[in-house]
Amino acid sequence: MNSATQTIDFTDNARRAVHGTCPPSCSAFPPVLDACCGGRMMWFDKKDERAVFVDRRRETQQADKRPGRSALVVDPDHLADFTDLPFPSDTFYHVVFDPPHCFRNGKTSRMHAVYGTLTGDWREMLRKGFAECFRVLRPGGTLVFKWADEDVLAREILALTPEHPLYGHKSGRLNRTHWIAFLKPNAEHQARCRAGL
């Protein structure tokens, strides 16, 4: 677990799950994980109790003076990086993965505050992010990956994970935003089906 990780409002079961002493049947966490929530822009209910919200930053950026703009508040339940999630394997039924997707967002820009910026070895960062999201996803669970074709095409990003997507949808003014669904294999269920059980 990353030393910068901070957890908030852990239940007893959640504490036991992180330390490996929680039985598999216990429901220590809500069923959904948003692995890099930012300002929770896609959420209908930004305080939805069915989800755990994670981000590596906690900050508020004041709005500019344009009409209709409000402050951007990044206030995750857990401070952690999506490449090193502080949760046991096979925990969540559904994971949302919406990582940074642009190189050119300046450090002081609103785009950087809202979406983050790809820096350093971003391919390895995203490879690890996919691996961690699938690690904490339960067998038979779903992962929704969101990516915008601004600087890197979605097909290049999908090549960073061995998992195969189920289906996807494009949205946005220029159809550059991809919503891509994955299903984590359930080896036990597949073995029972093959055995005719």
What is the count of β-strands? 10
Count of domains? 1
Shape descriptor: globular
Q: How many individual helices?
A: 5
**Helix-and-strand structural type:** alpha/beta
Low-confidence stretches: 1-13, 15-26
Q: What percent strand?
A: 25-35%
**Residue-averaged pLDDT, rounded?**
83
In CATH terms, what is the fold-level topology?
A: Rossmann fold
Side-by-side strand order of the widest sheet? 1-6-3-2-7-8-10-9
**N- to C-terminal distance:** 39 Å
Rg, nearest Å: 18 Å
What's the CATH C level? Alpha Beta
Order of helices and strands: EHEEEEEEHHEHEEH
Q: How would a crystallographer describe the biggest sheet?
A: 8 strands, mixed
**Helix coverage percent:** 10-25%
Q: What oligomeric state do the depicted chains represent?
A: single chain
Task: Describe this structure in a few short sentences.
This protein has five helices and ten strands; from the N terminus they run βαββββββααβαββα. With 197 residues, the protein is α/β, with parallel strands linked by helices. The chain is globular, with a radius of gyration of 18 Å.
Give an account of the 3D structure.
The protein is α/β, with parallel strands linked by helices and 197 residues long. It has one domain: 3-Layer(aba) Sandwich (Rossmann fold). It is built from five helices and ten strands; from the N terminus they run E-H-E-E-E-E-E-E-H-H-E-H-E-E-H. The strands form two sheets. An eight-stranded mixed β-sheet has the order 1-6-3-2-7-8-10-9, with helices on one face. It has a two-stranded antiparallel sheet with strand order 4-5. The N and C termini lie far apart (39 Å).
